[in-house]
UniProtKB/TrEMBL annotation:
InterPro entries: AAA+_ATPase, ABC_transporter-like_ATP-bd, ABC_Transporter_VariousFunc, P-loop_NTPase
Entry-linked PANTHER family: ABC TRANSPORTER ATP-BINDING PROTEIN ALBC-RELATED
Domain ABC transporter: 5-227
Keyword line: ATP-binding, Nucleotide-binding, Transport
The protein, known as: ABC-2 type transport system ATP-binding protein
Domain of life assignment: Bacteria
PROSITE patterns for the chain: ABC_TRANSPORTER_2
Nucleotide-binding found in the keyword field: yes
Organism: Desulfosporosinus hippei DSM 8344
UniProt xrefs under Gene3D superfamilies: P-loop containing nucleotide triphosphate hydrolases
Keyword Transport: yes
One Gene Ontology term of the molecular function aspect: ATP binding
């Protein structure tokens, strides 16, 4: 079976600025992957290219062997860095909308997660705190039975106590054959759930490794390795 996510010589320029420079990557199925890098390193650009919100300047990106497009959008569930949902909508209306929109959306899963995070489905988004809105958005994304979840900064806006809970929610609700890519710079909060990491800096992949290898061979946590690699 083809790898779920593959890039070859992937480059993206915005005018003179090169946000990604010749990225080569292969992500296999069935793992939780941390896409880790400092601000402006190219994480969101990579995720947007995978969702066809941007097109490459050169090189290729393939999702399950296919170029990003209608077919790949069916199997990719994407959490953007900013919310795009209509503020006036109630959570149960959003669930209805997602059910209409995506064949693989599972409303029961969404209601279960809302219950465990103590969010009232009758509430409108505009009455919620920023962190609760982020939780709702993540619940909607994780309630699709997708093959690839691309989560751009899923825990950035929630307090540290809620982070663990959210990460456990991600873990409990993804099928083991699927792949979850999580972009973040909050590494210590997330490293316990990661199987594999991609370090990205100034548009280039500087390290890829399984988390076990970092711990066993280097005798370090992902967080301390990250601090070492990205020392200012
Ligand atoms: N639409 C755009 N026009 C011009 N430059 C852009 C655009 N989008 C991104 N960039 C630049 O490309 C680089 C990579 O940005 P990107 O948003 O991918 O970084 P990031 O790793 O996601 O950062 P952060 O962690 O701060 O979200 C940055 O220098 C950014 O300023």
């Amino acid at each position: 079976m083809s790898s779920i996510f593959e890039c070859s010589g992937l480059t993206k320029q915005f005018g003179k600025k090169e946000a990604l420079s010749g990225v080569n990557l292969k992500v296999e199925r069935g793992q939780i992957v941390g896409l880790l890098g400092p601000n402006g390193s190219g994480k969101s650009t990579l995720i947007k290219l995978a969702n066809k919100l941007l097109t490459p300047t050169s090189g290729t990106i393939l999702i399950g062997g296919k170029k990003p497009g209608v077919a790949t959008k069916k199997i990719v569930s994407y959490l953007p860095e900013r919310t795009y949902l209509n503020d006036w909508m109630r959570v149960n209306q959003l669930i209805e909308m997602f059910s209409d929109f995506y064949e693989n959306f599972n409303p029961e899963k969404a209601y279960d997660m809302l219950k465990s995070l103590k969010i009232n489905p009758d509430d409108r988004l505009k009455t919620m705190s920023k962190g609760t809105k982020e939780k709702v958005q993540l619940i909607l994304v994780m309630s699709r039975e997708a093959e690839l979840y691309l989560l751009d900064e899923p825990i950035g806006g929630v307090d540290p106590a809620a982070r663990d809970y959210i990460l456990q929610t991600i873990l409990r609700n993804y099928n083991e054959k699927a792949t979850v890519v999580i972009s973040t710079h909050l590494i210590s909060d997330i490293e316990n759930i990661l199987d594999y990491v991609i370090f990205i800096n100034q548009g280039q992949v500087v390290l890829t490794s399984s988390v076990d290898d970092i711990r066993d061979e280097k005798g370090k946590s992902v967080d301390s390795l990250f601090r070492e690699v990205f020392k200012c």
